[in-house]
Amino acid sequence: MTDSILIVGGGTAGLHAALECANAGAKTIVVERGPVVGGRLAAVMLKPDAIGDRSEGLRTPLFEALEGNENIEIITLAELENIEGRPGNFIVSVNQRARFVTDACTRCKNCHTVCPVVAPNEADMGLNYRKAIYTPMSDTLPHEWVIDIEGCLNMPPNYLPCQRCVEVCDDNAIFFNLPLNTIHERHVGAVILAPGFRTEEPDRFVGLGYGAHPDIVTSAELQRLLESPGPTGGFASKPSDEEYPDSVLLVLDNPSQFALYIVASQTHQLIEQDVEKVSVLLLAAPVDDAQRTAAQALADTAGIDVRWGGMFKADSTDENNFEISFEDLTQNLYVRENYDLVVLCSDVEPPDGLPELAKTAGIELSDDGYIRVNDEAGIATTREGVFATGCATGAKNIKDSLTQAQSAAIAAIAQLDPRQLQSGDSEVASDTTAESKPQLPPDMRQQIEQLLYALIDR
Ligand SMILES: Cc1cc2nc3c(=O)[nH]c(=O)nc-3n(C[C@H](O)[C@H](O)[C@H](O)COP(=O)(O)OP(=O)(O)OC[C@H]3O[C@@H](n4cnc5c(N)ncnc54)[C@H](O)[C@@H]3O)c2cc1C
Ligand code: SF4
Ligand code: SF4
User: Fold this and answer.
1) How does pLDDT run across 397-441, given as a tens digit for each residue?
2) How far apart are alpha carbons 345 and 363 in whole angstroms?
3) 84-123 burial by CB neighbour count: b if 16+ within 10 A, else e?
4) Pocket around ligand 3: residues whose beta carbon is below 6 Å from it?
5) Helix axes 398-413, 12-23, angle to 10 degrees
6) pLDDT value for 54
7) How far away, in angstroms, is 348 Cα from ligand 1 center?
């Protein structure tokens, strides 16, 4: 038996599970596909209050706690390549791609100034730009920058026509002669899969005006603007001119429970930022009396105007805002209204590459494409000793992701020999594990959420 656990996916769920395992004394290896850990909520891990109390009293892991925990090993730019063996005794292989920048990097930014290659920054949902040598955010774990070798002029490596970054790097942190791939083998007792989810491609919204104007954004893009530290320091501003919007329209064409959750959360954040007029347009079935009452309650409680619309069209005006036209199914009227910012609410899907990961891990997926789990806690996959957590088993909020991560960690630890566990860092643990805070009375976001749910016949 071994004292180690492998976690695939370094987002909220994977990192929380990692801290739980590490603090219980297990050597914990986190394998993250991207260049930095944090997943969808990486910004939150820089600044605990970056999203207010949207984790509802539970603490998301912080980079500081992860770095300070000697039981945690993080392997970025890496993917699981093979698992052999049985619970308590798995041999896993992990394939890591080269970063080309070593931990000697001091984040001085000299290379950023000289690199001639510009690309959209994926971490900012493409709202900002980065260079081929870059850091996705203002602070990251690991700290060192990374080279996007696909975009770099030195691609393929060792053919070196550019070298501008190497020339200005006083810390001697950039090397193009590193092996392109490194295989790591580890002996682990259990595996936790936490590869998260992805948001729908914005292309789906072209028919609703996405791409026609920079101030028509998706909810994933708005989320990045609302996160501190995001591209605008945590404020909803219009991408076209960085001015604050006075009026925002959130348009929902697929009112799944998770999409409604996101709308409720973002509506609340916009109201908190003193946006004068926040409206929600549901491109969905006509109202009945109960829905009409819920819409009125929403208007009275939070000052949100809720409409049920048929057709929808956004035309930009001379005043740099939009004229929105839609068929108001509540009043059977054709309506035209002006807004400064339009948010098209995207839903979420299983993450890219999940079928391949499932095949490698020897587990099954459900009909909806997420990882199949068959126990009450929602963590036991179809292979013994392999657990799943977070949004990879279905969309969920931060609180549920963290709770499930804790269950997965407990189940994984049970596969290890307790005599081999090393003592963890209890100081870090008390600061970052799930704290049971006293239950707060429902806040406005919860009220908005409840009322939005009431609008949909479910
Ligand atoms: C627009 C939007 C708004 C939201 N607002 C809220 C809110 O207000 N409140 C709230 O509670 N929740 C909110 N959520 C939900 C919240 O983001 C999730 O609960 C949380 O991010 C789930 O964490 P996760 O670790 O499961 O997934 P992720 O954060 O997606 O992390 C998964 C990680 O796994 C990595 N990965 C993927 N595949 C592999 C692989 N094959 N190998 C290795 N690594 C891999 C990814 O790179 C990523 O780092 C929102 C979500 C969205 C999309
Ligand atoms: S790679 Fe070198 S030049 Fe670039 S930020 Fe790091 S230390 Fe500075
Ligand atoms: S070698 Fe690549 S990363 Fe470095 S400056 Fe040139 S294009 Fe940018």
Assistant:
1) 888 998 999 999 999 999 998 777 765 543 333 333 334 333 334
2) 32
3) eeebbebebebbbbbbbbeeebeeeebbbebbebeeebeb
4) 114-115, 117, 131-133, 147, 152-154, 162-165
5) 40
6) 57
7) 10
